[in-house]
Specification:
The complex is a heterodimer of chains A (403) and B (239). Chain A is α/β, with parallel strands linked by helices and 403 residues long. Chain A is 43% helix and 14% strand. The C terminus of chain A is likely disordered. In chain B, helix 1 links the parallel strand 1 and strand 2. The model of chain B has no long low-confidence stretch (mean pLDDT 95). Classes of the chains: A alpha/beta (403), B alpha/beta (239). The interface between A and B is medium-sized, with 21 and 20 residues.
Chain lengths: 403, 239
């Protein structure tokens, strides 16, 4: 059995604000201090309406779930509070809702435990959660000292898991958070709690934390080749801590566009990929790495690493990332190969990116669902030496388990 | 002055890659300058930033007490000035006189100054001085080599930044009325990080007049060593 046979395909949306002013090229960063006077609320309303409809379309087309993320002070994402967006999607959808996610250390972890429990209860147990440390940029937008971000992150996860897995009221004494009565209502439907991931960029500390907790791991902003090394290391650490390294423990991200021909797909896709890397991701190393955000070992790695935010050349991007544009056959082949290569059964699909217009999003989302997913579902199984393929559970089986 | 004379010096935001020439002048007149080992500012591996400002005060006070110099005059520059002001306000018996050189600790939103850490690391030092960057700051920790030097610089910057993140305001305005003894407040009129106008907030809160050092930037004891040494010597002589 191949990991592809059990793969889940989740539809990721950045909710970007794409109506940039004519002079935006004069800003070396479109994060942190790019003036919010450039945000036009009526335009934002139209974009929210459109983006929500695209998510609902994806759910109706049969994607396994929808994925939201959180960023602050940026046109990259209009979702600084993705739980609100998730709540708006719940009554309109049937699949998983993944919030990938709120940095738990930027606020009060009991509050986040409450919000996620609300979403899980409201959705009837359809919530999945990923905990990111957040990009360096988030620390310029919030009050948390980046030098204590990691310690605060670990403690906030501990608070959240206590909220979900232990009956209250209970006391909690930490270095950053102290509670006399930790007793949040509601608690999640899913037991012991919704499936959890940690999102990172491959730092050893974050991998170790995810492995210790038995969470899944998702890596972003580093080249595919480096991701594969990270996943191998993560699986080794999972096993070390007594957790089975099943394929659902690893989520990969893929940018894909489907069209009638390879040439047409590239013609329709590349401008928006370019926009994404040149504009949505445009920031500076100093905002990526506020002092103390990375540990000393990670700092040593980063001063020798390439700037992943620095290229927008299509050939370079395709060479180092999971990006594909082409016919359904070409896209299905690439996606299947990437899943097997990564030993992953979870995909976050970026089928809408940058300033892609709605008609292309609808076309791509529909073609992928109708032409690519069936090919992947029926792909001939291939043995993957020694890798277990137990893992991904459907919503129905999850609900049965909970019942 | 008779007998053993000493004062404690708490360094500024870029650490202390070499003895300040102003302090060297004072040392040449018989003063012993006691420089405590502030965690992280030496760039040594193993530094973990304290969880909060109270944690910082604790490790700084431990370092100060380890010198055995207190009680005595205390001179603090930049972030060291903020720490010195809190030492004097909260442990008045430990500080016989206090000299503050462009201290952090009070943020004035009408004069926000330069956000040092929003600059590329390679450009930061130039904004700490009104004159040329002094040689010890051109390649801080460079003696450790091309691999370890940048790491030590990072550790030093993390220590300093964790003290002043995000604005360098630790609520000192609410405590400086407790400053017990004689206090000297020096400020460079070319300070980019803490514009000279910020000194008025200190004067207002602490009741201490500011003495302006013309042509000096944030680390004024490096830009104007003779003048700063002279004013410190006069002040300390009156202690």
């Amino acid at each position: 059995m191949s990991v592809v046979d059990e793969a889940e395909f989740h539809y990721f949306h950045f909710f970007p604000y794409t109506h940039l002013p004519a002079d935006h090229a004069e800003y070396d960063s479109l994060w942190v201090d790019f003036p919010n006077s450039n945000f036009d609320p009526p335009t934002g309303h139209a974009l929210f309406t459109r983006y929500l409809s695209e998510m609902v379309l994806a759910d109706r087309l049969g994607y396994d779930g929808l994925v939201l993320n959180e960023h602050h002070n940026t046109q990259y994402s209009m979702n600084p509070a993705p739980n609100l967006t998730a709540a708006a999607l719940i009554p309109q959808t049937k699949g998983w809702i993944s919030v990938f996610g709120t940095p738990p250390n930027l606020g009060y972890p009991n509050r986040l435990a409450e919000e996620y429990a609300m979403l899980d209860v409201m959705s009837g147990g359809r919530l999945r959660v990923a905990f990111p440390l957040g990009t360096g940029m988030e620390y310029w937008a919030n009050t948390v000292n980046p030098a204590t971000a990691r310690a605060r992150f670990r403690e906030s996860l501990d608070v959240i898991l206590r909220c979900w897995t232990e009956d209250g009221p209970q006391g909690y004494v930490g270095d950053f958070y102290t509670y006399r009565y930790l007793n949040p209502w509601p608690k999640p439907i899913q037991k012991p709690h919704p499936e959890c991931y940690i999102v990172g960029t491959g730092s050893a500390e974050t991998i170790e934390l995810a492995a210790t907790l038995g969470f899944g791991y998702s890596v972003v902003f580093i080249p595919t080749k480096a991701q594969l090394q990270v996943f191998d290391h993560f699986r080794e650490r999972l096993a070390h801590h007594g957790h089975e390294p099943t394929p659902d423990k690893v989520t990969i991200g893929i940018f894909a566009y489907v069209a009638e021909t390879d040439a047409k797909a590239e013609e329709e896709f590349i401008p928006h990929v370019t926009y994404f890397f040149e504009n949505n991701l445009r920031t500076t190393p100093r905002y990526l790495n506020p002092p103390g955000y990375v540990t000393v070992p990670e700092f040593r790695k980063r001063i020798q690493a390439p700037d992943v935010h620095g290229t927008s050349n299509w050939d370079d991007l395709v060479a180092i990332n999971r990006i594909v544009a082409g016919t359904p056959e070409k896209v299905a082949d690439a996606v299947g190969n990437w899943l097997e290569e990564a030993g992953s059964s979870r995909v976050n699909l970026n089928l809408t990116i940058g300033d892609m217009p709605n008609w292309k999003v609808v076309k791509n989302t529909t073609l992928f669902a109708e032409e690519v997913l069936p090919k992947l579902r029926s792909r001939a199984t291939q043995a993957l030496g020694g890798r277990s393929s137990a893992g991904a559970s459907s919503l129905a089986s999850a609900m049965e388990t909970k019942a | 002055m008779a007998g053993h004379q000493q004062f404690v010096y708490l360094c500024g935001i870029a650490g202390l890659p070499a003895p300040s020439p102003a302090l060297e002048v004072l040392a040449g007149t018989g003063w012993e300058v006691v420089v405590p080992d502030l965690p992280g500012f030496d760039g040594r591996a193993g530094f973990q930033p304290p969880d909060d400002y109270l944690g910082w005060l604790t490790v700084v006070w431990d370092a100060l007490d380890a010198t055995g110099a207190l009680p005595c005059p205390v001179v603090g520059a930049s972030v060291g000035g903020m720490l010195a002001a809190d030492l004097a306000a909260l442990r008045p018996e430990a500080v016989s006189a206090l000299a503050l050189l462009a201290p952090f600790g009070i943020f004035d939103e009408t004069h926000p100054g330069l956000d040092l850490y929003a600059l590329p690391a390679t450009e930061r030092m130039a904004h700490l001085f009104a004159k040329d960057v002094p040689e010890p700051f051109v390649d801080r920790f460079g003696h450790l080599g091309p691999d370890e030097g940048p790491v030590a610089r990072y550790i030093c910057d993390v220590a300093a930044a964790s003290l002043v993140w995000p604005l360098g305001d630790r609520g000192n305005a609410r405590r400086v009325h407790r400053l017990p003894g004689p206090t000297l407040l020096l400020w460079g009129d070319q300070d980019e990080l803490l514009p000279i106008a910020v000194s008025a907030r200190w004067t207002e809160a602490a009741g201490v007049p500011v003495e302006i050092v013309a042509g000096a930037g944030h680390l004024l004891e490096w830009d104007a060593p003779e003048e700063v040494a002279t004013r410190l010597a006069e002040f300390l002589a009156g202690d």
